[in-house]
Design a protein that fits this description.
By secondary structure, the chain is of the alpha/beta class. It has 7 helices and 11 strands. The strands form 3 sheets. A 7-stranded mixed beta sheet has the order 5-4-1-6-10-7-11, with helices on both faces. The longest helix is centred in the last third of the chain and has 15 residues, at 217-231. It is globular and about 50 Å long. It starts with a strand and ends with a helix. The structure holds cytidine-5'-monophosphate (C5P). The record marks 15, 22 as: Transition state stabilizer. This is 2-C-methyl-D-erythritol 4-phosphate cytidylyltransferase. Catalyzes the formation of 4-diphosphocytidyl-2-C-methyl-D-erythritol from CTP and 2-C-methyl-D-erythritol 4-phosphate (MEP).
């Protein structure tokens, strides 16, 4: 079995309000992206990794993260696109031949706390069902709110799950989903939504609230706390 991982890390980090994009900010003395890559580098089930970085950060990413931390499974470093979806598509195109892979796993560069066990569970479910993602059931009551702040609807909490990554797919499924999405100019905020759009079932595997996406300054505070907990 051959499993390729795509790590989109080409965001600008607008919501972090810092000059350095969030994936390069340090957590416990190491860049967030290095923490994330380490999980996949050390997992025997993973054969290779493609990292996506902003065009202007390609050199930085190679010289400050991939080379010094010795990530040997990173076979490709490709430039990102305007949206996250464009970045992931650049990586898929760089893989070239879908026949070479059984599974393609996509994981945000800014989710450093995913565990090997969680990755294994998503891989197992994708092998069985074709497509699977890590997600957590909503604990809060979820409202649909319009631009004036007025609540339009209360959604049924039992049916609401919050999507995370990794998101894993049998190779022909993700390939087709991306080709068809671009054929229809469809944009989603994750890969699963593209697969759902072509009518292929995607399964949600219960994850952990610790698998945060480090997006805002508040997330950095949480990230330091989670790191401290893991180091105990
Ligand atoms: O923007 P969002 O929070 O969804 O970003 C999730 C991941 O996608 C981050 O690791 C970010 O660097 C990456 N991304 C990307 N290309 C973009 C936007 C985001 O690779 N154009």
């Amino acid at each position: 079995m051959r499993v390729a991982v795509i790590i989109p890390a080409a965001g600008t980090g607008r919501r972090m309000h810092q000059a350095t994009p969030k994936q390069y900010l340090c957590l416990g003395g190491r860049p967030i992206l290095a923490h994330t890559l380490e999980v996949f580098e050390n997992l025997p089930e993973i054969n290779e990794i493609t990292v996506v970085a902003q065009t202007k950060a390609l050199e930085f990413c190679q010289n400050q993260i991939i080379t010094p931390f010795g990530f040997k499974k990173v076979l490709r470093l490709v430039p990102g696109g305007k949206e996250r979806q464009d970045s992931v598509y650049n990586a898929i195109k760089a893989l070239q031949r879908q026949d070479d892979y059984d599974l393609i796993v996509v994981h945000d560069g800014v989710r450093p706390f995913v565990t090997p066990e969680e990755v294994r569970r998503v891989i197992g479910a994708a092998l069985e069902h074709g497509a699977a993602i890590l997600a957590t059931p909503a604990n809060d009551t979820v409202k649909k709110v319009n631009h004036t702040g007025r609540i339009q609807k209360t959604l049924n909490r039992q049916d609401i799950w919050l999507a995370q990554t990794p998101q894993a797919f049998q190779a022909p499924i993700i390939w087709r989903a991306f080709v068809e999405a671009y054929g229809r100019d469809f944009y989603g905020t994750d890969e699963a939504s593209l697969v759902e759009a072509i009518g292929i079932p995607v399964f949600a595997i219960p994850g952990s609230v610790y698998n945060i996406k480090v997006t805002t300054p508040e997330d950095l505070v949480l990230a330091e706390a989670i790191l401290a907990l893991r180091q105990q």
